[in-house]
Amino acid sequence: MQPPSENPASETATPRDYFATTHWSLVLHAGRSDSTSARQALEQLCQCYWYPLYAYVRRRGNSPADAEDLTQGFFARLLELDSLADVRREKGKFRSFLLASLNHYLSDEWDRARAQKRGSGRVVSLDAGQAEERFCREPADAASPEKLFERQWATLLLESVVQQLQGEYESARKGALFTALKFGIAGEPGDGSYAELSSQLALSEPTLRVAMHRLRQRYRLLLRAEIAKTVAGEAEVDDEIRHLFAALAG
To answer: Greatest CA separation found in the chain?
Structure first.
């Protein structure tokens, strides 16, 4: 996919809308509260992003079993209130915070993590078999584990945005339209594609072009909103978008 060429965010959302609830706000709330809801919210966040971290640990030379235990151990440590008490939103990008925290854990807690009874302290539901199967399917790549982590993070984030968009269309009973047009998210289709789709969907080409424009506009808005959850402030959104698309291209 190519980075968005337009910025429709100002048309339908404000920065306040973006930053009402972010990954950072969940971390900060969990670090200052012992409420069940705060912990559950953070656990759900960990559930979303565990695979890039698991794959990173595997690429650091760990076996599948050790990678699973180390990833679980990291999440257990992350979710301890003491480890979050001193976290500041100013730490910047959430993906950078997670990777730095994981590296710190791997460095300082290696022996303790390996000494733990296998299977203890599980806080996130990991499908280890599925994760390893996915890991083994990935082509060999000479890039560093850090670069591959960023690439997988970007891929996961974009997949999440597309799933959100699909869910909106399906809720509006326009799932078939989404399926027909989703190939256009990555770039403007050629005129031949519009002519063919117009015939298939029994829509005029002008109507189809408007539908495609709205799909891509909504995608860009959802993408910005999702990335806004992972950075410390509005000024970082565009930079993070550029960085993640560069990670995908690299």
So the answer is: 66
